[in-house]
Write a structure and sequence with these properties.
216 residues, eight-stranded mixed beta sheet, Spore Coat Polysaccharide Biosynthesis Protein SpsA, Chain A, 33% helix, 10 strands, alpha/beta, 20% strand, 8 helices
């Protein structure tokens, strides 16, 4: 009976679809040596490393939201078979990229995983843990927010169920979905993650130097 219940759960989970928005439209204003996402780590740019980790995960659909220097990114990423979406309003903040992406994802998606392109150390295994937890807790009647946590600190990415799609289309400024998450605490499931990488974005020179040092 236990094996049958497990099989039934696996079948039900297959019907739960998660879209991914990779946010890569920002100005990279804190990095003095160029756009942080285009900096190299060995043979790959930071954004390429992030994409490769996501590509190996169990997401069902994938969009990359570009803005600043989108022409350069389009050339760098031309070999990836992933839709590149241009956010012409990127200077209005990260919320504009989320809104752009939400308006385009498949409305059959049960949730959206919002990822930051400057977090190349998050592994596909970590993404899959969060995806699996979303599928385990999801039901169509109840909103759900999956937040990763390391040593009591919440990080990225976040997964929000489709119940929040209409609200995500109304957010504004440079705080992303933080306000929406804060006012919906009762729907949050915090998932303990053993990797500190969920806290580590590469947004300044010191963090970039540390990244390339550790990659040697």
């Amino acid at each position: 009976m236990a094996d049958f219940s497990k099989k039934l759960l696996e079948i039900n989970n297959m019907d739960i679809k998660i879209s991914c928005l990779l946010l890569a439209a920002g100005l990279s204003s804190r990095m003095p040596i160029g756009n942080k996402l285009l900096l190299k780590v060995k043979s790959l740019t930071i954004i390429e490393k992030t994409i490769k980790n996501l590509y190996k995960s169990n997401i069902d659909s994938f969009f990359i939201i570009l803005g600043h220097q989108s022409n350069i990114f389009s050339e760098v990423l031309k070999n990836f078979k992933i839709p590149l979406i241009i956010n012409d309003s990127y200077q209005e903040g990260i919320s504009s990229s989320i809104k752009k992406g939400i308006s385009l994802i498949d409305q059959k998606s049960n949730g959206v995983m919002i990822c930051l392109a400057d977090m190349p150390k998050i592994t596909s295994e970590t993404y899959n843990i969060l995806i699996d937890e979303f599928k385990k807790f999801y039901n169509s009647a109840t909103p759900l927010i999956i937040l990763p946590e390391y040593n009591g600190q919440t990080g990225n990415p976040v997964i929000l169920s489709k119940h929040f799609f209409s609200e995500l289309k109304k957010i504004s400024g440079d705080v992303g979905a933080k306000y929406l998450i804060k006012k919906n605490k009762k729907y949050i499931k915090k998932i303990d993650i053993s990797e500190k990488h969920i806290l580590e974005d590469i947004d300044d020179l010191e963090k970039y130097r540390e990244l390339i040092k550790n990659e040697k």
